[in-house]
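Weekly modeling sync, notes
Attendees: S.R. (lead), two postdocs, one rotation student

Agenda item 3: backlog of single-chain predictions. S.R. asked that every request posted to the team notebook include the full sequence so nobody has to chase files. The rotation student volunteered to paste the first one in as an example of the format we agreed on. Action items at the bottom.

Example entry:
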Amino acid sequence: MTEAIVRSAAANDLPEVLNLYRHLHPHDPQLETATAERVWSTLLTSSFMTVIVAQAAELLVSSCTLAIVPNLSRGGRSYGVIENVVTHANYRRLGLGRRVLAHGLDVAWQADCYKVLLATGSKRETTLRFYEGAGFRRGGKTYFEVRRP
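Predicted structure, as returned to the notebook:
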């Protein structure tokens, strides 16, 4: 396993997170600097959001974002939503993505979430098995989405 530190993201991590996201959505247009800085500041200062990163040497190599959503059902217990799971292409299959997800789950359980949701657009069996290996279950609920036209 590659030696890495898993931690919450810091303000100076923005350029590396943006580079890492190129491995997630390589065809997305690059964000304007002002937009990226505004969104990053919102993410880092929100009490509902945690950006988790794995750092190997000086490079961020894996990340996910956890939202903890306050909830009036389930006894007032929150639920978590994990998005933007990505590992640098050169660092895949080393357990780093699983470690980032485990850290996200730890944060959610410490916040007394009753569940954590994760959605993927991937249909690749290896990706689906990766999420199962990280503790997520297929078929628990049916997931729907609507995107802005």
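Discussion: group reviewed the output briefly. The first strand starts at residue 5 and ends at 8.
Action items: rotation student to repeat for the remaining queue; S.R. to check formatting next week.
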